[in-house]
Amino acid sequence: MKTTPRWLVAVALAIPLLADAAPAPWFQWRSLADGSLVCSQTPLGPGWEKSSGPYRDAHCEKRMSAK
């Protein structure tokens, strides 16, 4: 039976540490038509402008801190 090289095991164990994924931030968007505000992670289209953000939650209440 072959043994796995130690460097390969070390690389395999280090990969999850490199994949530091975070959720996408939320932004508050303002309608150009009537000024209403909506919280979304993605742009809503040409009739909307980014009003504020980024936020950590879907209610656009908890601001994200700068890193």
Question: What would your notes on this structure say?
Answer:
There is one protein chain. With 67 residues, the protein is α+β, with helices and mostly antiparallel strands. The chain has a domain at 24-67. It is 19% helix and 27% strand. It contains one helix and three strands; from the N terminus they run αβββ. The chain has one helix at 6-18; strands at residues 26-31, 37-40, 48-55. It has a three-stranded antiparallel sheet with strand order 2-1-3, with no helix packed on it. The protein is elongated, with a radius of gyration of 21 Å. It starts with 5 loop residues before the first helix and ends in a 12-residue tail after the last strand.
Primary descriptors:
67 residues, alpha+beta, 3-stranded antiparallel sheet, 1 helix, 3 strands, elongated
Number of helical segments? 1
Query: What general outline do the C-alpha atoms trace?
Result: elongated
Question: What is the first-to-last residue Cα distance?
Answer: 48 Å
Average pLDDT, to the nearest integer?
Answer: 88
Strand order of the largest sheet: 2-1-3
Query: What does the main sheet amount to?
Result: 3 strands, antiparallel
Keywords: Signal
Signal peptide: 1-21
Protein name: DUF4124 domain-containing protein
